[in-house]
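> Could you send the Lipid-binding serum glycoprotein C-terminal domain-containing protein prediction when you get a chance?

Sure thing. Input:
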Amino acid sequence: MAPSICFLLLCLLFLSSSTTGVQDHEEGFVSITISDKGLDFAKDILIDQAVASIVLSQLPQIEKTVQVPLVGKAKVVLSEISINDIQVNSSSVNTGETGIALVVSGATANLSLNWRYSVSSWLVPIGISDSGTATARVNDLQVGLTVNLTNQEGTLKLLLLDSGCHVRDLSIKLHGGAAWLYQVLVDAFAGSIASAVEEAVSEKINEGISTLDVLLHSLPKTIPLDETAALNVSFVSNPVLSDSAIELAINGLLTGRNEILAPQGYHRGSGISVFPVDPSSKMITISLHENVFKSGSLVYFTADTLQWTVDELPDQELLNTAEWRFLIPQLYKQYPNDDMNLNISVSSPPDIQVTNKDVGVKISLDIILNVLEAGEVIPVACISVDFSASCAAEILGNNLAGWLKLKKFSTNLKWSKIGKLHMNLIQSVTSSVLKTVLIPYLNSQLMRGIPLPILNDFALENARILYAPPWITVSSDVSFLGHYYHKQLPAYVS
Ligand SMILES: *[C@@H]1O[C@H](CO)[C@@H](O)[C@H](O)[C@H]1NC(C)=O
Ligand SMILES: *[C@@H]1O[C@H](CO)[C@@H](O)[C@H](O)[C@H]1NC(C)=O
Ligand SMILES: *[C@@H]1O[C@H](CO)[C@@H](O)[C@H](O)[C@H]1NC(C)=O
Ligand SMILES: *[C@@H]1O[C@H](CO)[C@@H](O)[C@H](O)[C@H]1NC(C)=O
Ligand SMILES: *[C@@H]1O[C@H](CO)[C@@H](O)[C@H](O)[C@H]1NC(C)=O
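Output:
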């Protein structure tokens, strides 16, 4: 008994050292904080998975020869010893600076087994034998383990530092058999059965931890978003364990899929070293720095994906010079009755800023009016547009999506080969393009969202978004959809 208590005390001592985490210098732009409640939830899943793996496991056969008074020398064999059921009464998880400790105490387990014996003695020279079944019950099973979680080149490494399992009370119920057999089982076998249970549980813990480690190791370091961009989900720095939470930092920036160089020059900003912690008692909080969005803006801009040719408008007549014969006589005179299209291009990386209530977006565009004549595309005028929009963040599945709303815009005629255009005209064309074409298109893209770093088998539940410039935080509970133990290596949602 003493070793197990020592062990549990050790777990707690080991963890109760000071909780000030020292952060590495590499900066993460996405942080995940798993709260007490989240850890408890994870612990329960892990225990369920562990119990599922232990139940029905068969322990090795035990064989002993014992001298039984008045009976003789009995060779007793216990076989098909299996653990049929485990009930966990109480468990806890604790984090400390150097590791995570999980303790299960007072668990009970039911075992079934077969027995057989043969006795030979000078009294009974022929020898007698018998066989039957029995059940055993572990009334107080204690299990404790501590693991360390570290960052290994961008992925997490889970290391089992210590584990122990102790059976404190075992009772046996014999079906059939003789009274002496019962006594033999209690005296000579109970300890061996208990040890076999302890060994089986310890072995499953080792297996389980390495399965989890393989799983963590197999998580991708980048998640492709589309042909253009990928999200860097490499872990930066070691997890910070405090007595109430685990905090993980992820690079979180978007990079071009074909880009060789990592994006440079993003900083969280001076004086901001701590993420806003949502006081709500949710399981996890994921914080995204506005640089995540800024990096996306740069990647899509640099890849020339922010330009579109528009040859369809809800008001299709606008795309024919005939429609303009009175308003822009010169256009109609030079190109009578020709179709037109618009070349819209974003002229600098959109500026994105998290504010107290939304994500503010500023975009500068050039809208080039083209005339299509005899298979040729002839640019005739260019309008430059600056507009600002408000983007409301939303959670869709496990993705962070957004919905843009136009706030205001200003326009300017950049150049024209068809004479001066009226300001009113420019503004109404721009307004129509923004409202009927560009914003709806951008929203269709934004609605796909970016995946939040959640394991595949988990879903966000009752997520709440908080704006804490320059961070957006998503606080959420999660639900478990699958069964890790039986599945091979699930990955992030992509
Ligand atoms: C379960 O735990 C509670 C308190 O933690 C204790 O009172 C109760 O007796 C335990 N039940 C069993 C079956 O061990
Ligand atoms: C556990 O991990 C931390 C970093 O997270 C490390 O500093 C510490 O040395 C590790 N402890 C052991 C015993 O491996
Ligand atoms: C386990 O054993 C106990 C006592 O022997 C019994 O009351 C209980 O029903 C058993 N549970 C299962 C699932 O067999
Ligand atoms: C992803 O982030 C890690 C950690 O910050 C960094 O070392 C790595 O270079 C980044 N990868 C790319 C492709 O930018
Ligand atoms: C649209 O305009 C941009 C900027 O003036 C230019 O680089 C691009 O080639 C044009 N696209 C088409 C399809 O004409």
